[in-house]
Design brief:
This protein is of the alpha/beta class and 772 residues long. Helices cover 34% and strands 17% of the residues. Strand 14 and strand 15 form a beta hairpin.
């Protein structure tokens, strides 16, 4: 692979790529994206750059706006569109080096999409959208939200913040909710994914975040992955793990699907979905029973060991195998590998958390990591891989949450609340607000009457989509702020056009707590505006006097109020290439690895907690005999707002599908490509079948990315994790049957028709989906 030293500027790089595309495509896309696009696409990109003189291009280093790995690279623009993404020097890209995934490399057509929102829309008297000036649109929003606040109180309003937006913008979303709208009901997509991780790690270790740096994935002796389709959801991390495995590390994969990482695993174990605490507790029991735990670490740095020891006694080999399908030999070999390793990293994503008992699952994992001493040392720790580009920072650290201020400071704490009341010049209710899914349940009872949804497509991402649609349609007032007229925006009274991450400046915080710069590459499209500017103008129309000149000023306010960001400023982030929190003051270097000295608990130790296990909210029955689980695929991103507008990506993955085991399919007379109807107690959808033994005979899998299938019509909005209020996306009881081709076509037509409803002919857009 050529180094940057072999290249003579951008033109040389692109010419070299053009010459080598057929014989060595790695020079353009790196090994992660090498097989993704045809050579014609690579030539097209090379030609686009080659035809531009270097001085005509805008070049800015920035942080990727897709997943939360936090890849950095240079983006090249002619001022109108993004022409190419080029990885930077290793030291300028601390997470990814010279690697990128297919989405970060090629996924920028959405910026100039024909259906990009470039002016505000308001609903006229006939119920149709029409373009409006910013003055009219902002006045409508201020009046609509203000009337509800003044008539019914701030508690009748809610805000859904955006993990796509910057840290600075999410901080202002929280400030706007509490200061201007006078509500604590603000939440974000973290509620739907890793909030159970945050709750569980917060209880046991003190910080609800990864304890490691991504470098630890490259030096760990052992890695345990569960509920993480790493190659498709976090490709760059998957490459780091695979390289470490090639160098001799052990890899344990526990998952209901035989994902690609299983091919690299020392041991792959197929588990029954919904019972993760059972097999995790089974491993913990084996380790304790055979004296394989770290006695010194347990004695000196933990409390509650006896409680855990007692709680895992019920997870005997026979019981674990009966409940989960995991054999005693598999439990024993996994336990031995973990215990023999000098350092083990425990990684997971939503397969562990998106359950009605997700917090329980993560506590079990936290116990296992702690009793084996795999915390606070190189190559060891816990790593919940985050999905949205800024869900760690914007979704958690910045406090757009119903119970926390920025930095996870409890709003019920009188001293903390007084600090923010003084800084924000307002009174703040000490009572927690509603979590995201609770907002929709409360709105159905008229307790929530207005919503302000920023960068979230709740009409597709909420569990029980039918219920969410009913709520959105019947709100007194709804404002949506986004890049496109999404499925959610079609219910709005006002739609405000936001700017994408390439059109603004700020910071993102990645999955290992690294705060990195996001730099503007091009001007906002049309009359769209960055979220922070929109929020400031709205706040001032509603009686406040915000006067920020830049997001750098917003970060200065953040670090003055948020201890873990106390030493974070734009200047320092630029100087250091990124800073990992906690970063306590302007002389602090940041924290590469948590818990090297002590834990962030009252006693400075791990608070081990014994947990049993809970059944999924619904289990298979004679009427609904199969278990549906959902997830992501490499070539799409969440609900598709960005990736559905990239032609090359759509060629590889143009629709959702259902994975069915060959034995199950044969029993129903289903062949590959056949349309299949999937039905739960809440709804149904029709998708084409993929016949594969990646899933077991009792399970089916469907991705989450397309409005036509809208798989969340089938999931449950009522049974939430009691601690974190996370919905149970990963287990739904369903039945499956063949469907005729007309049913599949009808589902596609319905998705397109739904997108068109309530838009005038001039305002209609192609199907668009927002990101959860």
């Amino acid at each position: 692979m050529s180094s940057d030293n072999d290249l003579n500027g951008v033109a040389g790089y692109m010419q070299h790529a053009k010459e080598q595309a057929l014989s060595n495509v790695e020079n353009i896309a790196e090994d992660i994206a090498a097989d993704t696009f045809p050579e014609g696409k690579l030539f097209e990109i090379a030609q686009a750059i080659g035809d531009k003189r270097l001085e005509e291009l805008n070049v800015a280093d920035t942080t990727c706006g897709y997943c939360a790995v936090g890849c950095r690279f240079d983006l090249y623009s002619d001022g109108e569109e993004i022409l190419a993404a080029r990885p930077t020097e290793d030291e300028d890209a601390p997470i990814n080096g010279i690697s990128t995934c297919v989405k970060g490399k090629f996924g920028y057509d959405f910026i100039n999409s024909d259906d990009r929102l470039t002016a505000p829309l308001v609903r006229d008297e006939s119920g149709q959208f029409r373009e409006a000036t910013w003055d009219e649109a902002l006045s409508r929003v201020a009046d609509g939200l203000g009337e509800i606040r003044d008539t019914h109180g701030g508690e009748a309003l809610s805000v859904i913040a955006s993990s796509k937006a910057t840290n600075e913008e999410n901080y202002l979303m929280g400030k706007f909710a509490r200061q201007v709208l006078q509500t604590n009901s603000i939440d974000n997509c973290n509620r739907l994914c890793h909030s159970s991780t945050v709750a569980a790690l917060g209880q046991t270790y003190g910080y609800g975040a990864a304890s490691i740096s991504t470098d630890d994935l490259e030096i760990a002796d052992c890695i345990l992955l569960t509920g993480s389709n790493t190659t498709e959801a976090h490709p760059v991390l998957a490459t780091q793990i695979k390289q470490n495995v090639r160098d001799g590390a052990d890899l344990l994969v526990f998952d209901p699907r035989e994902i690609q990482m299983a091919e690299y695993a020392s041991q792959y174990t197929q588990v029954k979905p919904g019972y993760d605490a059972v097999w995790i507790n089974g491993i913990t029991r084996y380790i304790i029973e055979h004296d394989l735990y770290d006695e010194t670490f347990v004695a000196e740095q933990t409390t509650g060991f006896e409680e855990v020891q007692e709680s895992v006694e019920e997870f005997t080999p026979d019981r674990v195998e009966k409940i989960t399908g995991v054999s005693h030999d598999e439990i024993a070999s996994a336990a031995e590998m973990i215990a023999d390793a000098d350092g083990c990293v425990f990684g997971w994503t939503l397969g562990l958390t998106e359950h009605s008992h997700g917090t329980e699952n993560v506590i079990a994992m936290a116990n296992l990591a702690a009793i084996t001493g795999n915390l606070g040392k190189p190559g060891a720790g816990v790593s919940p891989f985050r999905g949205q580009n800024n869900v760690q920072g914007g979704g958690g650290d910045m406090g757009p949450l119903p119970d926390n201020f920025p930095g996870y400071q409890d709003i019920a704490d009188d001293d903390v609340r007084a600090k923010f009341e003084d800084a924000w010049d307002c009174e703040i209710d000490p009572e927690y607000g509603y979590y995201t899914t609770q907002m929709f349940l409360e709105a159905a009872e008229d307790n929530i009457r207005g919503m302000y949804i920023i960068g979230e497509n709740s009409a597709l991402s909420e569990p029980g989509v039918n219920h969410a649609e009913d709520v959105l349609e019947n709100l007194d007032f709804l404002v949506v702020q986004d890049l496109f007229v999404t499925e959610t925006a079609k219910y709005a009274d006002v739609v405000l056009p936001a700017s994408s991450f390439v059109e603004k400046t700020g910071t993102f915080t990645n999955t290992d707590r690294t705060v990195q710069m996001v730099n503007k590459v091009m001007e906002p499209k049309g009359d769209s505006r960055p979220d922070w500017i929109i929020l400031q103008e709205l706040a001032n129309r509603m009686g406040r006097s915000w006067d920020y000149d830049s997001t750098a000023e917003v970060m200065d306010e953040i670090n003055s109020l948020t201890p873990i960001y106390g030493g974070v400023s734009h200047e320092r982030v630029k100087e250091n290439g990124g800073l990992q929190w906690p970063c306590w003051d302007m002389d602090h270097p940041g924290t590469v690895r948590l818990y090297e000295d002590e834990f962030n608990t009252d006693n400075g130790k791990v608070n081990l907690k014994g947990v049993g296990y809970s059944e999924p909210a619904e289990t298979p029955t004679e009427e609904y005999p199969l278990t549906l689980t959902t997830g992501r695929v490499l070539y799409q991103y969440h609900t598709g707002t960005m990736t559905h507008r990239e032609e090359g990506i759509m060629q590889y993955n143009p629709s959702d599908f259902v994975e069915i085991n060959p034995a199950t399919a044969a029993g129903m007379g289903i062949s590959g490509g056949d349309p299949v109807r999937i039905e739960s107690r809440r709804g149904e959808t029709v998708v084409p079948a993929q016949i594969t033994d990646r899933v077991g005979p009792e399970n089916v899998f469907v991705p989450i990315h397309f409005t036509e299938s809208a798989i969340n019509r089938l999931t449950d909005e009522e049974h939430l994790d009691p601690t974190a209020a996370t919905p149970e996306y990963k287990v739904s009881a369903v039945r499956v049957e063949p469907a005729d081709a007309d049913a599949l076509d009808a589902d596609v037509d319905t998705g397109q028709e739904a997108m068109s409803q309530s838009l005038s002919s001039d305002d209609r857009t192609s199907m668009s989906t927002g990101d959860d």
